[in-house]
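Here is an idea for our session: we take a single protein and study its fold together. Once you have written the record down, we can walk along the chain together.
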Amino acid sequence: MGSLKEIKSRVQSVKSTQKITSAMKMVSSAKLRKAQRAIENFYPYEQRMMSILNHFISGQDECPASVYSQVRPVSKVALVVFSSNSSLCGSFNSNVQKKLQHLLLQYKDLGKDNVMIFPVGKKISKSIVKQGYKPQGNFETLADKPNYNEAAELAEKLMDLFKERSVDKVELVYHHFKSKASQVLVDETILPLNIQSDGKKGITPFDAMIEPDAETIMRDLLPMVVKLRFYTALLDSNASEHAARTVAMQTASDNADDLLQELSLQYNKSRQQAITNELLDIIGGSFK
């Protein structure tokens, strides 16, 4: 059992840490509300665009071929991995790192030169360097401040690589935001784009006049869908990061409360023991 001075010092230290975690929780909660509104407002739009694409394909007797939907043997792959720039968000970054390691083992036979990694976030960028891979650019600003124009620029770069056959497959690794307490790690293939007829029951492909022609519409619509899908993943990851940090700081604050209770009990016991010892010394001295 420590001395009263040591216990009191620990209590002050825990209280100071609790103030920090409580403040970080409030900041993360505010950022989460903003990020949650962004993903909730944008996600239906992206889903609607995908539905329009599927309906459009369903209404065509012969769907025009697109370079972005070509499935070919994978000899080169691009991985876009989303993490955060800072820590203190629970297992958010470690889960992403584990998933990336699993994918790197999966593509080990391709060789390091044929695996291109685009890290969105400082934490995953450092992890990539440690594993001996070269990051294909710096995208740290996207992790903190999601921006459609920058996200679309990166998506265009990936589409150009796929179109030029510099890569045969593009995968996204990110957390899908379901709720404040639930974020699901997703490994999604964004290129080649999986386009298919909408086979939902009760839905009839729309009958529409195509201007100027189906091929032109497909050429413009597919890149737009890829960009929207990429930006949605970015918003998902950003909202998931703030949710994970909010929960982690709440847990830390709760743990600090439990620790303060234990230290308070320990302090009272030590104080009572010290008083008892003094009384015993006084009583013992009176009988001498």
In short: Confidence is low (pLDDT under 50) at residues 197-204. Helices lie at 4-58, 92-106, 122-130, 140-144, 148-163, 214-286.
